[in-house]
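Supplementary Note 3. Input sequence used for the single-chain structure prediction.
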Amino acid sequence: MSNRALLEVIALDAQDAVAAQAGGADRLELVTDMAADGLTPPLATFAAIRAAVDIPLRVMLRSADGFAAGDVDALVRDAEALRAEGADEFVLGFLDETGAPDMVAVRALAAALSGCRWTFHRAIDRAASRDALRKELAGLPGLDTYLTAGSALGVDDGLPVLLAEAARRGEPGYEPRILVGGGLRLSHLPVLRAARIDAVHIGGASRPHGWGASVDAAAVAEWRTALDA
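The predicted structure, written as discrete structure tokens, is reproduced below.
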């Protein structure tokens, strides 16, 4: 079995996707509207990216900035349409007004995604209790990853939390893979890898010329090399 760490890169379009794959990305997170921290991309964008690359794609299910689910029925329709187009991996995550997971929304989408793998995204970093959230979501079909910085402020602040959660792997609620993203820097990698955290997620780091620029294959390759070191 390969010990290769997973490198996930945010892609907004086919050009991003091609560059990310060329740089060594293992998987893409597909979103639109980075000003809102990533929303569900149009079907046409998914189709164009799927045609352009042959690595796994995780598609965001999120209709508005923030962590409230909004119109759950519309999210379910988006999920069904994307599945019909060929999508089979997703990203989602919603909180209620108390900071607990919105289980009505999450369960509805988990049911719509039956047979698919999915990531619970950085809503965990805004939760009232990370531990309670993990335990409430435990056992939901398809949930195999948490995208997290360990803190809403980013990895610099959240690193102790990430290391503590990694040490609990295998406990109820701590079985899903930790995918670290949010203010992540290359300098964090040695500590994360020493803790056997084997998955990272980059957005801005793959775009050294700013969010308005496309993914830079050389920037992705730098991360690939560092992860493989």
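The mean pLDDT is 96. The first strand starts at residue 6 and ends at 11.
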